[in-house]
Automatic annotation (TrEMBL):
CDD domains: 17beta-HSD-like_SDR_c. It comes from the Bacteria. Keywords: Oxidoreductase. The keyword Phosphoprotein does not apply. This is SDR family NAD(P)-dependent oxidoreductase. Belongs to the short-chain dehydrogenases/reductases (SDR) family. PROSITE patterns: ADH_SHORT. The keyword Oxidoreductase applies. Pfam families: adh_short. SUPFAM superfamilies: NAD(P)-binding Rossmann-fold domains. Residues 9-187 form the Ketoreductase domain.
Length: 286
């Protein structure tokens, strides 16, 4: 991707009223870029940005990402306002902590609608623009839990694992059009992700999983002590894109994320080595 050096870039960012998305919008506006920011509450977004941020280049958009037509209209308003579209950041999402059997059908649908269907709606609306202009960048914010899974995070991991597969395929499809793709995989960041306002919990639990109840309480107590600095996280994402979008597909954020991912790779290697001699047993004979 050739990042514009002669004009402000236009960013379309989802999930911007809090956390990493909010910090990203704040830094982009201070850079002087144009930002279309989707949120469930435009008022909360503008209020959270504060008086110290010039919002003249901000287009706050209340969008239900599950609604394909609403997304299409939001992208159209963005291009009409700013004249183009350079970077798309799919950041919207939330946590869910429960045993697999404690999740309801509605829980599953809600999570996948946001983390998978919503991303797909945004991509369908924005990729034709970037293809036609022969340039752009897509940033899909996943998690280190898109690479590895832990008990209690099954539903959240299901959404992030799906996002990882989607993004890997996408990178191979659009590279020839000058469109870069980055998967961002944060660890624990000091946002409100682990507060009761952001972390969804099951409506009913079973007493079969006391360890998960303890883990839930421990995670809630982590709030305010997480390793990741959202200011540095947003800086890293912007720097990756502005710097030309080069480098590997995955952008791990946080030493904890790197440690979790490394452990997963080592476990997978052990699994591959253990099955190396038996894997070919199901092939047709030569």
């Amino acid at each position: 991707m050739s990042f514009p050096a002669d004009r402000p870039a236009t960013w379309f960012v989802t999930g911007t009223s809090r956390g990493l998305g909010l910090e990203l919008v704040r830094q982009l506006l201070r850079r002087g870029d144009h930002v279309a920011a989707t949120t469930r509450s435009r008022e909360r977004l503008v209020s959270a940005l504060g008086d110290g941020v010039d919002t003249a280049r901000l287009l706050p958009l209340r969008v239900d990402l599950r609604d394909e037509e609403e997304v299409r209209q939001a992208v159209q308003r963005t291009t009409e306002r700013f004249g183009g579209l350079d970077v798309v950041v799919n950041n919207a999402g939330y946590g869910f902590l429960a045993a697999v059997e404690e999740t309801t059908a509605r829980d599953v649908r809600d999570m996948l609608d946001v983390q998978v269907v919503g991303v797909w709606n945004v991509l369908r609306a924005t990729l034709p623009i970037q293809r036609r202009q022969r340039g752009g960048h897509v940033v899909n914010v996943s998690s280190v839990l898109g690479l590895t899974a832990m008990p209690g995070w099954g539903l959240y991991c299901a959404g992030k694992f799906a996002l990882e597969g989607l993004t890997e395929a996408l990178a191979g499809e659009v590279g020839g059009f000058g469109v870069g793709v980055t998967l961002v995989e944060p660890g624990y960041f000091r946002t409100d992700f682990l507060t009761r306002d952001s972390l969804a919990l099951p409506t009913e639990t079973t007493d079969a999983y006391p360890a998960l109840r303890e883990m839930t309480e421990n995670h809630l107590k982590l709030q305010g002590t997480q390793l990741g600095d959202p200011v540095k996280g947003a800086e890293a994402i912007i720097g990756r894109v502005v710097g030309g979008g080069g480098g590997p597909l995955r952008q791990l954020l946080g030493s904890d994320a790197h440690a979790y991912a490394t452990a997963k790779v080592e476990a997978l290697r052990e699994n591959l080595d253990a099955t190396a001699e038996t894997a070919g047993a199901t092939d047709f004979a030569a």
